[in-house]
Amino acid sequence: MRWLAAALVCALIPLAPAVASPSPVVTGAARGSVSIPAPVVRTSAGAVRGSVHEGYRLFQGIPYAAPPVGALRWTPPRPASPWSGVRDATRPGPACAQAAGEVPGGSTSEDCLYLNVTAPLDATVRRPRPVIVWLHGGGFTSGAASSYDAHRMAVGGDVVVVSVNYRLGALGFLARAGLPGSGTFGLADQQAALRYVRDTIGAFGGDARNVTLAGQSAGSYAVCAQLASPSAAGLFQRAIMQSGPCTGGPARPFAPYAAAPAVARAAGSELAAAVGCAGAADVLGCLRRVPVSRLLAAQGADAHPSYGTALLPRDPAEAVASGRMARVPMLIGANHDEGTIWAAGLMAAGISVTPANWREVAGEFVPDPARADDVVRTYTVHGTDGGPVFGAVIGDADYACPALRTGSLLAAHRTVWRYEFADPAPPRPTPAPPPFPLGATHTTELPYLFDLGGRARNMTESQHRLADTMIGYWTRFARSGDPNGGGAPHWSRSEVQSLAPGRTGPVRPGGDHHCALWATMP
């Protein structure tokens, strides 16, 4: 599986959304001739001053927990210390520690537990709006709340959007026997942010009784973990999961999943050995003195929360299958061509997929190599089309079919709305042209909901209309649990809704993705 890991690393780097840039600050008159001063909101910890933009207010870099530094490294999040005076909230807080990629130059900051609030100008305590709390993706090793400019969603959907930083990589998910919070520090941060929203969002014009937890990729899987976590009960009333189904596992290496306790602790021991702490009398004390840059160099390409813990007692896949999850309305889906970005990364790593080696490649990918012939018969490689075909295998096995299965399992106990994003030519997620058309690959739905460093500006007129439709669906779901209304094409709960420019409506994707084959795999 070494070449699979190489493809994963190569593919993750260009997936990064560029740091978002909010629309210009309103410095003069706004809404006619009325000048709007910089807004000040008073929270229980202290006052914050944000900025005013066209149609919305933005507050950035608000601490929702104490910095997990020094002796607080690898401890559950503590409350943020109060401050006096008015805190500047016009710039985002530091991204959590990560290698270069999504965050240009990376980050070595452990003081990173901050969130951002985007609210319509007229959202007030007396007229509160529904709240969407956004968890970014990035394999639990990269990403930042500040990459997601949410003003189009806030203004167009009339909602308050909260984006959250949480600890990543080894700093967020180290597992060791006897360590409180072991393997779940990043998930605990998310719950601390949700408690902050519950206690404070009313001051920003948000409705604390109407909170939707949403995320993409690893962020989506985190939503699933929170649905399965007893300590998250009551912290949100709805959930949105984009391209991160609950049923992932180690046999599906391109999708997020939770690790078994023994596996997670073994990874923690490997990290301790890699940084020279394995033989220390106090291993944890030694680890807490290791510089962040050294930890980043020693950690893996992906991180995984650990189940079998107080925060996450059971594997989310098992919780979905047994129905032992929070019974809240859900909106869940995946993209039509999720896997092409990883296949392109594999090609960038110098690995080819040809008719001659396709069976060998398939044998490396499937959990049971004896089933490689089934894959080869179902997905035929001709000439130079090996990359797109392998992309279809990755996407179908790791995302499309698990998303359909997750949706079906969840629908047995709660209201579920299912979608498939299927724009065949969305804004390109990579800075350089890929070796073949990627289609609706992983992350390409994001610029339809958020501004990601200008990617939305590259859309056609019909793509902008699709973006408006999707924002309407997402925010109406957050408001009432039903995405329908606003003149958008009807979305039936009994069907998967295909989302594509000019072609939004019901679709049956199981056959297109050969889900009957993947349902029989171990």
Break the fold down into its secondary structure elements and pairings.
Elements: H1 2-12, E1 29-30, E2 34-35, E3 40-42, E4 47-49, E5 51-53, E6 56-63, E7 86-88, E8 114-120, E9 129-135, H2 151-157, E10 160-164, H3 169-173, H4 185-200, E11 206-216, H5 218-228, E12 238-242, H6 261-274, H7 283-289, H8 292-298, H9 316-322, E13 330-335, H10 340-348, H11 358-365, H12 372-378, H13 386-411, E14 416-421, H14 461-480, E15 496-499, E16 505-507, H15 515-519
Parallel strand pairs: 4-7, 9-10, 9-11, 11-12, 12-13, 13-14, 14-15
Antiparallel strand pairs: 1-2, 3-4, 5-6, 6-8, 8-10, 15-16
Helix pairs in contact: 1-10, 2-14, 10-13, 11-12
Protein described:
There is one protein chain. With 522 residues, this protein is an alpha/beta fold. Helices cover 31% and strands 15% of the residues. The protein contains 15 helices and 16 strands. The chain has helices spanning 2-12, 151-157, 169-173, 185-200, 218-228, 261-274, 283-289, 292-298, 316-322, 340-348, 358-365, 372-378, 386-411, 461-480, 515-519, and strands at residues 29-30, 34-35, 40-42, 47-49, 51-53, 56-63, 86-88, 114-120, 129-135, 160-164, 206-216, 238-242, 330-335, 416-421, 496-499, 505-507. The strands form three sheets. Strands 5-6-8-10-9-11-12-13-14-15-16 form an eleven-stranded mixed β-sheet, with helices on both faces. A hairpin with a 3-residue loop joins strand 1 (29-30) and strand 2 (34-35). Residues 5-16 and 27-34 have low confidence and may be disordered.
